[in-house]
């Protein structure tokens, strides 16, 4: 059955791999993008998730074209790395506004339709560093850790309405976000990953699609690591 799926930040990186995985399975997929040309094959909405008005407009357009969103993947995220002593108020609040408050905005809006439909799947993209911590990423790690409490609260609040909320915590994935790292940093990371390599975006997408599938009907409030073993033990 073809479902209405929304992937925020589905125009590139992990989000694009997730969008493709759902589209390949026959779902109707909407993605958000902020600038440039979005990839073909999706309903692409220009939407910055830090702006509640743009979020509302995007949902109206999706509902008109694909119907109520049944699967939401809150994937859009940013980093603004800096050691705490040098981290400005803006470095901190802008990362929280995208990664945490932006997720709140899109999830809250999706829930309206999901409650009416009496079903819904929400998957939040966190990160291994939300649980392990990461020097120079206090803002990012805090925003990603917060997604766990957010998802688990909603799992309790809305479980009886047949809505599930799960978190995927990727390790290091080969995308624009990690291309910013130096070769030395990359080698250092890889040396700590039991599987000895970065993930491909498709490997994250497969887990997201599982969590939105019938096979995951009894899974909610879970945090699933897809990190090559990097975060083992948390
Ligand atoms: P990229 O930097 O490649 O892509 C980020 C995506 O988020 C882009 O689509 C971008 O849109 C979108 N985005 C950022 N800010 C906003 C905003 N305010 N409104 C709407 N969209 C926005 O990152 P990845 O694909 O690597 O990461 C995707 C998710 O996975 C993120 O949440 C990230 O934190 C998480 N993650 C990534 C890991 C990695 O190693 N790469 C590891 C663990 C987690 P635009 O093109 O318009 O900028």
Automatic annotation (TrEMBL):
Chaperone recorded as keyword: no
The family this protein is said to belong to: Belongs to the short-chain dehydrogenases/reductases (SDR) family.
InterPro entries, per the entry: 3oxo_ACP_reduc, KR_dom, NAD(P)-bd_dom_sf, Sc_DH/Rdtase_CS, SDR, SDR_fam
Gene3D superfamilies for the chain: NAD(P)-binding Rossmann-like Domain
Keyword tags: Fatty acid biosynthesis, Fatty acid metabolism, Lipid biosynthesis, Lipid metabolism, NADP, Oxidoreductase
EC number from the UniProt entry: 1.1.1.100
Protein name: 3-oxoacyl-[acyl-carrier-protein] reductase
Function: Catalyzes the NADPH-dependent reduction of beta-ketoacyl-ACP substrates to beta-hydroxyacyl-ACP products, the first reductive step in the elongation cycle of fatty acid biosynthesis.
Pathway: Lipid metabolism; fatty acid biosynthesis
Substrates-to-products reaction catalysed: a (3R)-hydroxyacyl-[ACP] + NADP(+) = a 3-oxoacyl-[ACP] + NADPH + H(+)
Top-level taxon of origin: Bacteria
Annotated SMART domains: PKS_KR
Annotated gene: fabG
Keyword Transferase: no
Pfam families: adh_short_C2
Subunit and interaction comment: Homotetramer.
Domain Ketoreductase: residue ranges: 3-176
């Amino acid at each position: 059955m073809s479902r209405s799926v929304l992937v925020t930040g589905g125009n590139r990186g992990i989000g694009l791999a997730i969008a493709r995985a759902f589209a390949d399975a026959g779902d109707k997929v909407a993605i958000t993008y902020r600038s440039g040309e979005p990839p073909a094959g999706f309903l692409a909405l220009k939407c910055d998730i830090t702006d509640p008005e743009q979020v509302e407009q995007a949902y109206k357009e999706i509902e008109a074209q694909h119907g109520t969103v049944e699967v939401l993947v809150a994937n859009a995220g940013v980093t603004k790395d800096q050691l705490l002593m040098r981290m400005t108020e803006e470095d901190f609040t802008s990362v929280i506004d995208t990664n945490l408050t932006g997720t709140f905005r899109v999830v809250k809006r999706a829930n309206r339709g999901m409650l009416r439909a009496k079903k819904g799947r929400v998957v939040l993209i966190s990160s291994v560093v939300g649980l392990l911590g990461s020097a120079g990423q206090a803002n990012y790690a805090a925003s990603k850790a917060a997604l766990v409490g957010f998802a688990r609260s909603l799992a309790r609040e809305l479980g009886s309405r047949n809505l599930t909320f799960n978190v995927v915590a990727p390790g290091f994935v080969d995308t624009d976000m990690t291309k910013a790292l130096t070769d030395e940093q990359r080698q250092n990371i890889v040396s700590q990953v039991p599987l000895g390599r970065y993930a491909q975006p498709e490997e994250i997408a497969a887990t997201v699609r599982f969590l939105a599938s019938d096979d995951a009907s009894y899974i909610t409030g879970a945090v699933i690591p897809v990190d090559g073993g990097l975060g083992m033990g948390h």
